[in-house]
Structure formats: C-alpha cells, structure tokens
Write a structure and sequence with these properties.
121 residues; Alpha-Beta Plaits; single chain
Length: 121
C-alpha cells in the first residue's frame, strides 16, 4: 500500500511540474494597432495571427485600437507578432505597415486620410 501511495505522489509531483513549466513560457502582450478601423480589420488580424507559430489567442479591439496576444515565448516573440501584423497592412507599435499589403486592404480598412475608415452617419 505504501508503494502505491508513493507512486501516486511521484506521478502527481511530475504532473504538477509539467503543468507549471508550460505556463512559464506563455506571455500576453498588448500591441497598439492605431490603423485598424473596423470589424473587417479585426477579423483579418486575428486570422493572420492564428497562423503565427506559438500564438494561442488574439483579441483585437478596433475601438481602443489595441491587439492583445497570448503566445508561447519559446515559439515566437513580440517582434515576430508585430511584424506579422505589419505584413498584413497595419501599423503595430513601432513597426509601420507593409506598404504593398496596405494598398491591398479594402477601403474601409485604410486610414481616414487615405479615404478609408468608418463613415459617420
């Protein structure tokens, strides 16, 4: 009976150690995405970020102009995530949008000074 108890204790210890190691590599960051304009921008960014290795979750708030990203730090980093957003055509903190990708965005997703943005009714 003692052996079974010790075996259970050892198994539980290893399981807890494994879970805590996984959590250590997970980070959540908030990136300023000032050029997002609408729901279509939100969907586009969230979809492209899910293709980035290590990204577990992304939530774009186009009203606050922020993107919250949860990722595994051993698989990617904040610079890769910001570059992915910029390559989709949007500014991400200090990284400017890729010009070619920006040109391909729908009109509603472009900056107001370029004729885009949500129309006030």
């Amino acid at each position: 009976m003692k052996k079974i108890g010790l075996l259970l204790l050892a198994t539980l210890t290893f399981a807890i150690a494994g879970i805590s190691q996984v959590k250590k590599g997970v980070q959540t960051v908030v990136i300023k995405t000032p050029t997002i304009q609408c729901e279509m921008c939100k969907e586009r960014i969230e979809k492209i970020l899910m293709r980035e290795p290590g990204v577990q979750k992304s939530v774009v708030d186009y009203k606050k102009k922020t993107t919250k990203v949860t990722f595994v730090s051993e698989r990617t980093n904040i610079e890769n995530i910001k570059t992915t957003i910029a390559n989709a055509g949007y500014d991400a903190d200090d990284i400017t949008a890729n010009e070619e990708s920006y040109k391909k965005l729908p009109t509603c997703c472009k900056k107001p000074e370029d004729g885009g943005g949500m129309k006030n009714e």
